[in-house]
Amino acid sequence: MTNHQSRPLRAADIEQFVRDGFVRLDEAFSPQLAEAGRAILWRETGCDPEDPATWTEPVIRLGMHAERPFREAASSPVLAAAFDQLVGPGRWRPMGALGTFPIRFPSSKDPGDAGWHIDVSFGTENPDFLQWRANIVSRGRALLVLFLFSDVGPEDAPTRIRAGSHHDIARRLAPAGEMGLTLGELAATGFEESAHRREVAATGPAGTVYLCHPFLVHAAQPHRGAQVRFIAQPPLESAVPLDPAFPVGRAISAALSGTD
């Protein structure tokens, strides 16, 4: 949604976030920034944007980038206002860079990373990512943020989202308390507890941002289109524990009270 910069999310958008675990923010950063960012990323891939014969892999993963287009996209006033609405003023850490970037190319190959999951938030010093953890208070992470740096249509490997699945994950995490669960423990069910949820594709023109609850179950998919897809998927880190007075914390409380 688009709205006045000081309050870009309407009441209906906030209720959608609590219910579905995500909200789409249109025109969160400019097409010009997206184009400048793509030029930087193309160079790092080592591929030729004009020669599909050089696109030999289904996905190339790039790390953090702090060049001007990425800093400016991350510090968009519209985004800052939306973060305040969802997490609370002063309760999140500004992003000085963006990443990671899973660059997806049209390909018949299996990308090998299209399973359902959540992005876990602590214990990341362990070299085994399946030992990384999440807990019921989402320690360290306030949001998952999807920045679309290219136009993403239904065939362009949009991120798949299970709407409302953040409630299922909250109920799984609650009995584990402060220690939470590892990604391996969460994945042991194949995330079947959220399989009944409606699937949504994170499509939109370049400059679109999806603000996602940290417990939202999501997945990649193969690229069946023609144009290379560029997105960033950084966390918004929390500065203080989540507050149930704001929508991210309220969604967890709703799941645990059965009012979701």
What's a quick, concise take on this entry?
With 260 residues, this protein is of the alpha+beta class.
Describe the 3D structure.
The protein is an alpha+beta fold and 260 residues long. Helices cover 26% and strands 16% of the residues. The strands form four sheets. Strands 1, 5, 9, 11 and 12 form a five-stranded antiparallel sheet that branches. α1 (11-20) packs across α7, α2 packs across α3 and α5 packs across α7. It starts with 10 loop residues before the first helix and ends with a helix. 43% of the residues are buried.
Describe the secondary-structure layout.
Blueprint: H1 11-20, E1 22-25, H2 31-45, E2 59-62, H3 68-74, H4 77-87, E3 101-104, E4 133-134, E5 141-148, E6 160-162, H5 165-173, E7 181-182, H6 183-187, E8 199-201, E9 209-212, E10 218-219, E11 231-232, E12 235-237, H7 247-257
Antiparallel strand pairs: 1-9, 2-3, 4-7, 5-9, 5-11, 5-12, 6-8, 6-10
Features:
3-stranded antiparallel beta sheet, 5-stranded antiparallel beta sheet, 12 strands, 260 residues, alpha+beta
